[in-house]
Amino acid sequence: MSTGALYVVATPIGNLADISLRALETLRMVDLVAAEDTRHSRKLLTHYDIHKPLISYHSQNIEKRGPELMAKLLAGANLALVTDAGTPGISDPGSLLVRQALDAGLKVVSIPGPAALIAALVVSGLPTQPFAFLGFPPSRGTGRKRFFEGHGSLPMTLILYESPHRLQQTLKEMLTIWGNRQLAVARELTKKFEEIYRGTVTEAQQHFAGPVKGEITLVVAGAEKPEGADPAADHWVEELERSLRQGKTIKEAADGVSAQFAMSRRKVYQMALKLKAPANSD
Predict the structure, then answer these.
(1) DSSP H/E element including 135
(2) What is the DSSP letter of 72?
(3) Most buried among 146, 202, 228, 248, using CB within 10 Å?
(4) Is the pLDDT of residue 80 over 50?
(5) Phi, then psi, of 156 in degrees rounded to 5
């Protein structure tokens, strides 16, 4: 018996017209659609006159539903995985099902499309590479404090999601722990009342002082390097050594590290030559 395939299908983050032709074709082809919220996804399928069985797959039922979906795939069913908005596997449990399917030797196919983090990044006005996606901060407690303390020193653009009722608290913690950085607050992306606010953390606090509605994506400037700081403190030399040990050429290692740490390629390349020199001198 042949096994089925898992299709990871990106769906609109707001505007229904943002779905791809390939995504529609896939949703019409599969035997079953696993959705984070079946009611939400039913509206999308109905809008495009697609009639397929829907089954819920979310953080509260993954232990029970995961084996059920795997059994269907192993029995030959083709399954589409969708989330409420955007690309499955990003800030939802979809990545677990993907891992299970891969471990079972099943075919996993990406049907790319919208993702709020990319949509917000490209209009933020902040550097688009490198960047780090942090997902949702913990909602409370010491985990939330550790989240902001642990990521505050990253030198690249930071992207995170937040619920509207915690936006002010998040801005307050950013100001206290990260400082008054430049940021963009993207609200209701692709929807009728879309808003992209750009400014500093304190300016955003004032702008969003009243009630806030809609999904929030924050794009925040990375940490600035202190004047006179030792570049080695950013661990780029250690990363360069690791790349060379993995068998990468000097050019490959230098290109990768310079892009990762937003550094001069010439400087990284010269260091790579020095690191490689002892091995070549024998």
Answers:
(1) strand 131-135
(2) H
(3) 248
(4) yes
(5) -100, 165
Domain map (residue ranges) of the chain: 5-114, 117-220, 231-280
Tell me whether the CATH fold assigned to 5-114 matches the one assigned to 117-220.
Answer: no
Write down the CATH number for the domain with range 117-220. 3.30.950.10
Helix (H) / strand (E) containing 267:
helix 265-280
- Mind listing the pLDDT tens digit for each residue in 1-50? 689 999 999 999 999 999 999 999 999 999 999 999 999 999 999 999 99
Phi, psi of 176 (to 5 degrees): -70, -40
CB atoms within 10 A of CB 53: 11
**Sign of the CA dihedral 235, 236, 237, 239?**
positive
Handedness of CA 170, 84, 154, 184 (dihedral sign): negative
Nearest Cα residue to 15 out of 104, 90, 113: 113
Q: Which CATH class is domain 5-114?
A: alpha beta
